[in-house]
Amino acid sequence: MTIAIVGCGITGCVIAREYAEKGEQVIVFDRRNHIGGNLYDYVDEHGINVHQYGPHIFHTNSEKVWNFVNKYGKWQDFSLICGAVIDGVCVPTAFDFTTIDTFFAKEKAEIIKSKLLSKYKNQTTATVLELLECDDADIREYAEFLYEKDYKPYTAKQWGISPEKIDKSIFKRVPVRIGYKKAYFDDKYQAMPQGGYTEFLRNILDHKNITVQLNVDVINILSINDDQISLKNYPEVNTIFYTGALDELFGYRFGHLPYRSLRFDWKYEDQESFQDMPVVAYPQAEGYTRITEYKKLPNQNVKGTTYAVEYPLPVSDNDDVEPYYPVLTDDSQKAFSQYRELASTIKNLVCCGRLADFKYYNIDQAIENALNVLEGK
Questions:
Q1: From CA 129, how far away is CA 143, in angstroms rounded?
Q2: What is the pLDDT of residues 76-100, one digit of tens each?
C-alpha cells in the first residue's frame, strides 16, 4: 500500500509520519521548492531566522498535540506580545486595560474597567462582539471605539470586503481582556521550535518510508474517473490525501472559492530594534496591515534587525500568489459545501488541512485535525 499526500505543509507532514510509522510507503508532493508549506522559515543573509510566509507562533492546550511536537524537536518557551497602533499610539493586543487607560480620561477609564470586571467577572476575555451587544452604555462605548479604530479598518483591509459581510468568527480572533495582561495567548503551552520550523518539519519527514518530491504540481498528473482518483505514473498509489484548494482540484466547477494572500515588503535596518513588539498591527495605515520584526520572534542575538511589512491582496487562478486565508461569507461557504460533497463521492480521496477544509487553522489545530482524520480512517 502506498499513500500519496498532496501538500507538504504541517497537515501533510503529520499524515506522512503517522502512516510511515505504521509501515506504509508514503510519497509527499509539493509544487513549491521547499517543505513546510506556509510554516517554512530560513536564516536570511543577516543571520536572522525569518518566516517567509508571515509569523507563526505555536500555542496549544492539547496534551496530545504537545506530546506529538516534542517527539520531533526541542521547544523553547515563548510568550508572544503583540501591539496595535491606534491614533499613533501602540497598545498591547489582545486589548487589555492598558488600552482603556491610554485612550479614555482617568475617571471614565475607571468606570469602564469597573463595569467590565463586574459584568464579566467570571471571564478573563470577551469578544468585541459581546461588548458591542452589552446592555451597558459605557462598555458599548469602549467596544465601539475598538471596533471603529481597529477591528473594522483592519478587517476591511485584510479581507477586501465590508466587515458586515465577513463571517463573525473573524472578530473573535483578537479578544478583549478583562484586566491587565499583555500576553497575546492564554494557552498552557506557548513555544517556538529550537532551530526553526523547517528543521522541526524535516525531523517529522525523516523516515525511511517517506519520499518527498518538490517542484511537482500534482494537479497536472491527477485524474478523476467516476469514484476514483489516480496519479499518472504512480500506479502503486491507492489512497490520496489532498491538502490543497478544492476548487482547483475540481477545475473550479462551482466557481472560485475566495482566498486572500499576502505580499511582503522585506526590510533590514542597521539598528538594534525597529518596534517595541515582535508583531504590530496598523489598522489605520494605508494599504498594509502589520509589521513583524523577526529578530524578536524569538529574540535573536544578532546585529541589526529584519522586518516585513504585510500587504493583503486577493487570489485568482491567474495570480502567482499563495492562498493564505479563506474568505468566509455565506456565499463562499455554500460553494465550498458543493465541493466538499463532490469530494466525498471519491472513495480513495481524503481532503483535509487549511485549504481543503476552507478553514483557518492555528498550528496546533492543524496537527490535531490531521491526527483526528487518521483516527477516523
A1: 8
A2: 999 999 999 999 999 999 899 999 9
Q: Are 241 and 306 in contact (CB under 8 A)?
A: no
Q: Which of 45-49, 60-64, 154-158, 227-231 has the lowest mean pLDDT?
A: 154-158
Neighbours of 151 (CB within 10 A): 24
Give the strand pairing for 2-6 and 237-242. parallel
Q: Which amino acid is at 149?
A: K
Query: Model confidence over 193-234: pLDDT tens digits?
Result: 999 999 999 999 999 999 999 999 999 999 999 899 999 999
Q: What is the DSSP letter of 269?
A: E
Distance CA 52, CA 39 (A): 8
Closest CA to 36 of 62, 17, 19, 12: 12
What distances in angstroms separate CA 115 from CA 96, 174, 319, 351, one per listed residue?
Answer: 14, 21, 49, 47
For residues 128 and 151, give the distance between their C-alpha atoms in angstroms, rounded to a whole number.
9
* DSSP states of 64-106: HHHHHHHTS--EEE----EEEEETTEEEEESB-HHHHHHHS-H
Write down the pTM of the prediction. Answer: 0.92
| DSSP letters spanning 20-75 | HHTT-EEEEE-SSSSSSGGG-EEE-TTS-EEETTS---EEE--HHHHHHHHTS--E
| Residues counted in the chain | 377
d(CA 83, CA 290): 9
Q: Taking a C-beta distance cutoff of 8 angstroms, is the pair 29, 218 a contact?
A: yes
DSSP secondary structure string for all residues of 340-362: HHHHTT-TTEEE-STTTTTS---
Contact criterion met (CB below 8 Å) for 192 and 79: no
Query: In what order do the strands lie in the sheet containing 279-281?
Result: 89-93, 82-86, 279-281, 290-293, 305-314, 259-269, 325-326
